[in-house]
Structure formats: structure tokens, C-alpha cells
Here is the input.
Amino acid sequence: MKGEDKRAAIEALRQEVIQALSPLLTKDQTQVVFGAGDPTSPLVLVGEAPGPQEDKQGVPFVGPSGELLTRVLRELGLRRDQLWITNVVKVWPTRRQGRSLRTRPPNAAERRASRPFFEREIAIIRPRALVLLGGTAAQEVLGRRIKLTDERGKWFDTPFGVPAIVTFHPSYILRLQGMAPEEGEKALEAFRDDVRRAAARAGLLKE
Ligand code: URA
Here is the structure.
């Protein structure tokens, strides 16, 4: 597919996802959050599901995890608009705690509802490489549970015919930095290196 056709197909898919999933929103959620960036990019970053900031703004990875991700990209000499950034689940998974709303892992029904759209999103973009951010994205794409401590930094074949590297989710790094700064620093370095290798494999950076 040519670049302009990809842009048109992704825009049509965005409208379709919004139509299909908006009726499932509860009063706690604002909107469906589709992918963002350049749909002709050779590199796609895949997260889990939107959080509260993403739900408000309608853009993936704009909250604290997104800030960390954006900073790492900048350190590598990459801009967000050179990539496609998305989530396997397109709606913020919430739970109530007292008066406040918290983020929880997406359940099977939420994953099932978003799945066909995520598959079509990747099929349209057909990147050269995927970065799977955290266990949920990895499980959703690879079809099995992943042990991140053993398998991060490794490349896998995917049903999309696109190689994927598995790495930490930025929110895990943030939590670790808060609990154990040295470990957090190590995880951040590993994460940066995984993104760098993926960008190199996709042809966005030199090896
Ligand atoms: N975490 C994710 O997995 N995706 C987002 O968009 C934000 C936080």
C-alpha cells in the first residue's frame, strides 16, 4: 500500500473503531483512544491500554508513561511523529476506588473487543518492526504469557509477519524508579537499548 493509501485506510479505521467501541464506553470514560503518529512508519510501539490522561486527550502515551517514552525517544534522536504509537486495547480500563477512578489491567472482553481493530491497524501499517511494551501487549501479540525478566530484549516472529522485540512497560520502570532507584535505572537503560535496537532494525537509526 502506498503512503497516502495507508493514511486514508488508517483514518477510515479510526472512524470505524470509534463507531464500534464508543457505545461500550461507560460514564467513567471519555473516548476511544486509537493509535497516533505516522502510519507509514517502519516502527510501531504497542502498549497495553489508555490511562486517564490518554482517555482525556484521545492520544496514546501522553501521561507519565508517555513522558518517559517520549524522553527516551528524544534521547535516541527520534520524534514521536516518526513512529506509530498505539495500544492493544482502545478504551481506558477503570475501577472505582472510593471516589476516584483507577486503571486496572484490561479484561478478556476488552481485549476481545479491540483485537480485530488492532490487527487491522498493524496489517495496514505493515511496519518493519514492533516494540511490545510490557506483558499485556506481548501476550496479545505473541499469543502466550511472557516472562519479561527472561525474555525482554529478545526478538520474536509474530502472526503479522513482522518481527517484534519485547521490552518493559514504561509504567513498570516508573514504579521501579520509585521503589528501587538503581534497579529502575538499569531497567531504563535496558528499555532504551531495546527501543534503539528496534529503531535500527526498522531502519530509523544506524545499527
Ligand atoms: N499505558 C499504556 O499502555 N498505554 C498508554 O497509552 C498509556 C499508558
